[in-house]
Amino acid sequence: MNQQKIDRINELSRKSKTKGLTDEEKAEQTQLRNEYRQSVLGNLAVQLDNTYIMTPDGEKKKLEQKK
């Protein structure tokens, strides 16, 4: 997600607290928030895929994904 979209999320949030949003702006806000959530979850998944646990005996073990 680029900075321009994050700025728009923040702009819509501020506007919703002061003036309120139109139906189109509410839909845009929902879409942008969902896109942001997916971006965060994707980044977290990549980070966890590259996470290793160091055991007390010095062995590195890849963090296993629970299903």
Largest sheet: 2 strands, antiparallel
Integer average pLDDT = 93
Low-confidence stretches: none
**Order of strands across the biggest sheet?**
1-2
| Secondary-structure element series | HHEE
Rg calculated over all Cα atoms: 19 Å
| Basic shape | rod-shaped
Binned strand content: 5-15%
User: How many E-type strands?
Assistant: 2
Secondary-structure-derived class? mainly alpha
Number of helices: 2
Percent in helix: 55-70%
* Terminus-to-terminus distance: 28 Å
Write the layout of secondary structure elements.
Blueprint (H helix, E strand, L loop, with lengths): L2 H16 L4 H27 L2 E3 L5 E3 L5
Helix pairs in contact: 1-2
Descriptive account of the structure:
This protein is mainly α. It is 64% helix and 9% strand. It is built from two helices and two strands. The chain has helices at 3-18, 23-49, and strands at 52-54, 60-62. Strand 1 (52-54) and strand 2 (60-62) form a beta hairpin. Helix 1 (3-18) crosses helix 2 (23-49). The model has no long low-confidence stretch (mean pLDDT 93).
